[in-house]
Amino acid sequence: MSRFVVPYAGVSNELGADEVAAVTRALGQQTLSMGPLGRQFEDGFAEMLGARHAQATSSCTTALFLAAQTLRLEAGDEVITTPQTFWVTTWPLQARGCTIRFADIDPDSLNIDPASVAALITPRTKSIWVVHHGGRAVDMDPIMALAREHGLTVVEDCAHAPGATYKGRKVGTIGDIGCFSFHSLKNMTTGEGGAFVTNDDDIAGKARELGTIHTWGPLVDRQSDRIGPYGQPAYYRDPHVRSAFTKSYRDNRYLIGNNYRMSEVAAALGLAQLGKLDRLNKRRQEIARHLDDGLAGTPGITVQRERSEAPSIYHLYTIFYDEAVVGRSKDDFIKLLEQVEGIEIVLRYFPIHLLPEFRALGHEFGECPVAEQTYFERQVQLPIYTQLTDAQIGHLIGGVQRTVEALSGSRT
Ligand SMILES: Cc1ncc(COP(=O)(O)O)c(C=O)c1O
């Protein structure tokens, strides 16, 4: 049992009889790896998005690695992204030696600010990586216009946003690649899991090659590829490694694959969850409306503006706290919410340009003033998940109101 009246999260995807039946059926299959359910899940996910290709992966992290690799982002390439994200968005880029440039954010949506992106473009810029923060779509039109003008690729980190739309289009299908997460706290889950989505046939083909350990290319010229005096090493006949010494493989080393695959059990879970995604997202939207209505008029508290062209699916529910109105710091507000009201608060996300590895590269406080001020002074995420009870929703509203009242009465 949680010590909180409203814990930050649980497994938040209403796992039930459908999931149990789906997983049980999967366990009866001949294989739990690379079987029919993975393909079915991919087809279903692509269809839900209106995308040409979806590839199931072991996580959003591995989908992001595939994105960096298929786009061949290399050392010295500059990639522009947002600091308001889970740091793993940039990890595949760091791992490949790319230079990360941090654009600032919009103070309401917490999404990357296209004007700030424009100011960072240089001749070395290769790609823009956006994150649909909390399930609210980035303003994609100006981002895509910049990409077209400067010949840049666009990757959408959709970890929070399966089914979210921008001007009627599902996010993840607007840029070159969309990467999704099905971690157990996300709007739909496969336990751990992700998806790599693209409308580009060439990118999709490369991702298939790279997402699995494979024998690359045709088995050409075996005779001349023998090593030194050796005839045929025993492992040469193993279908998994037999092309390891072909010329094709050597010439295409950048295309060496990895194991980023999703298991059949996870895919079964994903198929059951996919069938409920719309309902799960709508329930989050309904909870958000209750919270918006309940918190309206609370002094010092504002909620995010709803934009009709980009309705949020509320992976996160963010409120903004105004220290000048309440008279005490945001830290005091959070402390009371947790200690007196039993509302567990987790802030998402610490501006990642201030993490030690980026500070070591010269990034510093002041680089993204809106992201910094918003994170340190204003933003608070309240718990949101589909199983919140009416009593818990009421407690969130009452808890925020009581806390503001208590703090206002004890100005220092
Ligand atoms: C914005 C963002 N990107 C990527 C990820 C990584 O997802 P996964 O845990 O599936 O690797 C997360 C996880 O929380 C995230 O919030």
TrEMBL record:
It holds the Pfam family DegT_DnrJ_EryC1. Keywords: Aminotransferase, Pyridoxal phosphate, Transferase. It comes from Kribbella karoonensis. The keyword 4Fe-4S does not apply. One of its GO terms (molecular function) is transaminase activity. This is DegT/DnrJ/EryC1/StrS family aminotransferase. InterPro entries: DegT/StrS_aminotransferase, PyrdxlP-dep_Trfase, PyrdxlP-dep_Trfase_major, PyrdxlP-dep_Trfase_small. Belongs to the DegT/DnrJ/EryC1 family. Its cofactor is pyridoxal 5'-phosphate. Signal peptide: none annotated.
